Amino acid sequence: MGTSVQVTPLCGVYNENPLSYLVSVDGFNFLIDCGWNDLFDTSLLEALSRVASTIDAVLLSHPDTLHLGALPYAMKQLGLSAPVYATEPVHRLGLLTMYDQFLSRKQVSDFDLFTLDDIDNAFQNVIRLTYSQNYHLPGKGEGIVIAPHVAGHMLGGSIWRITKDGEDVIYAVDYNHRKERHLNGTVLQSFVRPAVLITDAYHALYTNQTARQQRDKEFLDTISKHLEVGGNVLLPVDTAGRVLELLLILEQHWSQRGFSFPIYFLTYVSSSTIDYVKSFLEWMSDSISKSFETSRDNAFLLRHVTLLINKTDLDNAPPGPKVVLASMGSLEAGFARDIFVEWANDPRNLVLFTETGQFGTLARMLQSAPPPKFVKVTMSKRVPLAGEELIAYEEEQNRLKREEALRASLVKEEETKASHGSDDNSSEPMVIDTKTTRDVVGSHGPAYKDILIDGFVPPSSSVAPMFPFFDNACEWDEFGEVINPDDYVIKDEDMDRGAMHTGGDVDGRLDEATASLMLDTRPSKVISNELIVTVSCSLVKMDYEGRSDGRSIKSMIAHVSPLKLVLVHAIAEATEHLKQHCLNNICPHVYAPQIEETVDVTSDLCAYKVQLSEKLMSNVIFKKLGDSEVAWVDSEVGKTESDMRSLQPMAGAASPHKPVLVGDLKIADFKQFLSSKGVQVEFAGGGALRCGEYVTLRKVGPTGQKGGASGPQQILIEGPLCEDYYKIRDYLYSQFYLL
Amino acid sequence: MASSSTSLKRREQPTTRDGDQLIVTPLGAGSEVGRSCVYMSFRGKNILFDCGIHPAYSGMAALPYFDEIDPSTIDVLLITHFHIDHAASLPYFLEKTTFNGRVFMTHATKAIYKLLLTDYVKVSKVSVEDMLFDEQDINKSMDKIEVIDFHQTVEVNGIKFWCYTAGHVLGAAMFMVDIAGVRILYTGDYSREEDRHLRAAELPQFSPDICIIESTSGVQLHQSRHIREKRFTDVIHSTVAQGGRVLIPAFALGRAQELLLILDEYWANHPDLNNIPIYYASPLAKKCMAVYQTYILSMNDRIRNQFANSNPFVFKHILPLNSIDDFSDVGPCVVMATPGGLQSGLSRQLFDSWCSDKKNACIIPGYMVEGTLAKTIINEPKEVTLMNGLTAPLNMQVHYISFSAHADYAQTSTFLKELMPPNIILVHGEANEMMRLKQKLFTEFPDGNTRIMTPKNCESVEMYFNSEKLAKTIGRLAEKTPDVGDSVSGILVKKGFTYQIMAPDELHVFSQLSTATVTQRITIPFAGAFGVIKHRLEKIFESVESSTDEESGLPALKVHERVTVKQESEKHISLQWSSDPISDMVSDSIVALVLNISREVPKIVVEEEDAVKSEEENGKKVEKVIYALLVSLFGDVKLGENGKLVIRVDGNVAQLDKESGEVESEHSGLKERIRVAFERIRSAVKPIPLSASS
Fold first, then answer.
1. How far is B333 from chain A (nearest CA, A)?
2. Interface probe, candidates A617, A730, A736, chain B, greatest B C-beta count within 10 A
């Protein structure tokens, strides 16, 4: 009866690889997240490539490489063509992240996995949703409703809820329950008892998260300590995700303390990023939107941060201690890598990591304990060709062009030979068919090629070349020439046109320098040299990942208490740990599938719908309990006119049922309640509560989990016969509803 | 237990539930324009749409008729946009009434709301008593206002609502409310035409059951945007070319931004005009620019693409003007000034000094509320009264070019035809216009399935929705889909407007609630022989089983399959049972019995009685009691031949089988009465059925 749900991980289980999961709901295939790593390892996408063409919809959760990096590649190379759903910031910042990745890569390698156009194409058709927007899928997905909800972690970050027939599948990875400067905490805990929860165990073993204030203090102290001794501080960051939080912390601290050390934010897209972020206030924390509403202070009007989009600007900056936030966080590419190599050997400098580097990257290596003294890095640089190389290149290009032309002409010759035959049979020999003109060029041999240019070619049916001729026939009737009224309509859009066209493309506002870099077609090459960098600068790692820690994850899952739980994205140890914990304490159905292992998490829930007749409902007395109301019903099944089952009141007397006590007793709350009633209470050993002099009260049986997932509570009250006993029993009853 | 209490209360419940009646009452904007405020109530949920002030009145008279409702019962208050006639009584309603529900508006609306109302308080020169609220009230109200994003679904007390883009002004929203499956769309002010910076109003995905729609434009048809803009720029161009001055009295926010965009672009395209200054005299609008620059997500693609290059709201040809003192009136110029109605302030000052020169022009750019000077001069009177009380001839040209961004007739009728709501309620329009619109809409929907209503203020429109209550039976109870006649018993959980039926022991699985069992153990001092207790209990209760406790080997009794009585020590016995009303009662009686034994120990004489005999005697007693009670109820009761009781009432005869409780009678009323009476008597005589637990 239940909705059939299958989960197949495509990447990112039992390790920290990028995330990519296939979730199929009643045969409708969702690809949730489409991540890649900073190394762009194509082997990670093997599983995806096998299923890409069967995907019906793509949902994106966070605007970073790990969650959406493979989208352009998958769209271009793997046959992924489904509509993509994401929030506005995930779309916009994700696009910028991909630009930054591409441009960083292009600088240091002959990157050819995807191009800027592929990125644009991939992001062009993203359907943008707002938080809590229930979007009813069209077509094949009829009946399925998807909705993104606040996840924390990154701007626009979403946990996805997929609902079909009242059953929820929730996908929540990398959420953060803690409120941050620019983000609200997740709303995951507002979902209760979904049919399936897919979540990560990434931080399951990570427990000692420092309090925010203390962490911020340490963070700022460490930075200012290094600045004061004249050192530089490098923060390797992501393009448009967690970096926003860091910028705000620094900005705030700088204005409070009046520091004059410059802060630079250096990525290929930094100014666009901040421009867009400024208009995303709706997606940020309550305090930020409030400060804007009351005083129109946009928190991202950064006064102390200079936005840079190329390294030269940084090199030209006045010397002296400075803070630089540069991408990529992995130090595998981007400005951060260059700067690291430059600064690593000065002991006054500081490289401050704010998140765990991706596996197998330079950043991860530097984060190991103890940090390496030396690291071997391959530095690559794109340099324009010059001298002999340039000549050689040009010759090579020319040769290629010639070969190309020759090959094309040969092919075309073949084609035209074939097409000539059909053209002879053409019923309208006078029609000029410009489509075939290209073919004709070849038919007369390459000798004509230099003379004939586009539009100046003979129709295939003619023997010799001739000028193109278009018969401008016009229709006449008794009133004269037939006109098309549309030609004379004043176009409304005319006035807008100018504006519409300037920058109407998806990338909208790319920085000029970036644009020039993109358009730079000067021949260039990549040169690499390996060098050994002495790491004498300080290396510090602090947790600004913005993810919930192990304890919160556990209590969050316990609160949500899904009927079935699927664990993904964590090292084997953490996955196993969380799995055991959940099996013991939360729910009996916990799955942690391997890559390409499909787990069926169809709920085994039986359900049917009935209509509640007015007659029955008028006799039901609801009791209010929290935000729901409960009542006992005894009814008889009947049929409505529309042949639907309906519940009618019992014809005879209902057989009595076993009374049920409904309510959730918390011993601690009850203790407070009793003392407010003037009863002496104290905790005795073993979780028992001693009320008055003689009466004890305790919970027995398996210790109740939060959320009551473990079954009915059992409460034992014992004592001698005395007035107190009955009084306390009455108080106890007052905590429950009897049905 | 539960069933008996229900049957007691049954009579108190009214037979027809009033929940299915849906009431819509305009408290303002009913057959008028201004002070929008529409109250809606359905199934115990109360919603208020908008909370405006009538711009033509002042003080309490400008408020909507809040007296008609109890503000404390309102669950949700939804504000569509920031205009005075839609949002300005909010601080009053939040701070000066008993309202304690939740308020929602969009981000942009909230940001502008504060600036606008702060300005409103400063500008409106009314006596202190007439002040409805002050700046402090506005600041306090900011904390209570919650924000909602377009399309975001919010649920409050089972009321689900979300909003769509409405066009009109920045941040304007149309609210769709869903209460128990009945959907109501409140459009607020909306426009289906995309303009320079705003998107057109969206067409909701779902058709509403009721559409509360504005009717400002009535049956008018707007000129196309292109022609309007051309007229506007032509008038300005020719006036300034002749050396005249152009006054554009406009509301500070909303349409003014659109007009400024037009002017700035026109000036940019006509370099010959560049020496003619354009002033825009609104410090408020200046302040709001940051808001316009931030919430570009609420605007259309055109502006967002323009924004990518340079900020279109940074005007190149338009100068701000703070007050008339800074203004040197020396030659042709264009001034856009507030207030839009020419009631007072800068626009009025300029009007007074310019109105008698026929070279000058005044362009009224939008809808004007009845009773304002701007509305008066549209009809081009010969003379006008100046602020100082004198009259002056009105020589300046007056042009009415509507940029008001209210839907016109064509937009309204296509909008409604797309949605096909069965109920249409027209608000926010002048009575005459509204009637014309109503008549014309009737011709558009001739099938008669559509009701069109035009309630006046405080006039309620009642509708009835036969909302079916659907429940989902889940879990164990649903393992087998029942057939007609089968019984379904379980816990009905209502959350919002969704119902679920489930078995009690699965309550914790499917809801956040949980069940509990309370085990009670009580010790009573008792020094006598345990056998005595057993004997006594046997005399009172139908079922007493003896056993021995497995651990201690002490004797134990299970009374009525519920309560275990155990000898704990020489001096104590203990009672243990699981709480429920019947067990509590049984245990209470055991306690009483034990205490009495303690007291009466010497008197106890163990009677040798035949168990069978006592059973018989019991039976006889029961019969006697039943007979006596039936006689007291019905009078003529005789023992019939076949062991049945024959009851005669007013010539009707009924036969009652004492064993099964079956009644035979030709008179159905009597039959039913006897059946019920007998059932009750039986449950009184034998209150605790042994099989209760089964």
1. 24
2. A617
- Is the pLDDT score of B690 beyond 60? no
B545 — pLDDT class (breaks 50, 70, 90): confident
Task: Compute chain B's Rg from CA coordinates.
Answer: 39
Distance CA B454, CA A218 (A): 66
Contact call for A492 and B224, based on CB within 8 A:
yes
Q: How confident is the model at residue B693 (pLDDT cuts 50, 70, 90)?
A: very low
Please choose, from the candidates B662, B657, B636, B631, the residue with its C-alpha nearest in 3D space to the C-alpha of residue B648. Answer: B636
Q: Where are the beta strands (DSSP E) in A4-68?
A: 5-11, 20-25, 28-32, 57-59
Cβ–Cβ below 8 Å for A654 and B3: yes
**Cis bond before residue A459 (omega within 30° of 0):** no
The contacts found for A419-427 with CB under 8 angstroms, 24 or more apart, are: A419/A460, A420/A460, A423/A460, A423/A461, A424/A461, A426/A461
- DSSP states of B109-172: HHHHHHHHHHHHHHH----TTT----HHHHHHHHHHEEE--TTB-EEETTEEEEEEE--SSTT-
Closest alpha carbon to B618 in B534, B539, B535: B539
Share of chain B above pLDDT 70, in %: 92
Partner-chain contact B305 A634, CB within 8 Å: no
pLDDT tens by residue, A526-551: 888 888 888 889 999 888 888 998 88
Residue A663 contacts residue B514 (beta carbons within 8 Å): yes
pTM as predicted: 0.78
| DSSP one-letter code for A516 | H
Going by their DSSP bridges, the two strands B487-495 and B278-281 should be labelled as: unpaired
Q: Is the CA virtual torsion B13, B16, B19, B21 positive or negative?
A: negative
Instruction: Kindly tell me if the per-residue pLDDT of A640 is higher than 80.
Output: no
ipTM of model: 0.77
Q: What is the DSSP string of B511-522?
A: SS--EEEEEEEE
Tell me the C-alpha distance between B174 and B188, whole Å: 6
The DSSP code for A307 is E
CA–CA gap between residue B589 and residue B577 (Å, rounded): 13
- The tokens describing B252, both together, are 């500070």
Hey, what are A690's tokens?
């001693």
**How does pLDDT run across B443-489, given as a tens digit for each residue?**
888 877 889 999 999 999 998 887 677 888 888 788 777 777 788 88
Segment B368-372 long-range contacts (CB within 8 Å, at least 24 positions apart): B368/B340, B368/B341, B369/B33, B369/B34, B369/B54, B369/B55, B369/B56, B369/B85, B369/B341, B370/B33, B370/B56, B370/B430, B371/B56, B372/B55, B372/B56, B372/B341, B372/B342, B372/B343
Yes or no, beta carbons of B153 and A732 under 8 Å apart:
no
Nearest to A242 by CA among A401, A64, A375, A378: A64
pLDDT single digits (tens) A222-280: 999 999 999 999 999 999 999 999 999 999 999 998 888 999 999 999 988 998 898 88
Query: Comparing C-alpha atoms, which of A49, A124, A68, A86 is closest to residue A508?
Result: A124
Out of B222, B406, B428, B560, the active site residue is B406
DSSP A164: E
Distance CA B576, CA B587 (A): 8
- Both tokens assigned to A312: 């030269």
